[in-house]
Design brief:
It is built from three helices and seven strands, in the order E-H-H-E-E-E-E-E-E-H. The protein is α+β, with helices and mostly antiparallel strands.
Length: 143
Amino acid sequence: MTGRDAEMDGRQVFRPRRGLAVAMAVAGLLWVAVLLYLFKFEGVPLTTFLSAGFFILFFGVSLTYYARTLIVVDARGITYRGMVRTRRFSFSDIRNVDVLPGPVTVYAIRGQWGFVHFTSFFRHHQTLARILVERAGLGPLPG
């Protein structure tokens, strides 16, 4: 971890890849341009405007998610900042880290008081998963 990912006080910050937020912003702006362009025409059906509005909303929410979400790991645990809420887990609260492989790997952190998740869209996601397993004292289940 280097640069923006490491803090001066030993905290590590994990975020989704920046390109995702940029892609959502560009797509949202494209749909804003489409909506504005539609106003130049007469007789455009309401559903066409609603469709453009839906895509603007969709990409706006996606941009907010990718720009706001982060996980901070410090000596005592993790802080997950999502789009709407912020959750704190000490390492002793973490009960399990489930890994669901696929085209996009999903990591589910199950704690004593709830759960949060992150995906392989996070930079250094494998390092984050390894840190969580090690510091929470978890290991693979005997098979």
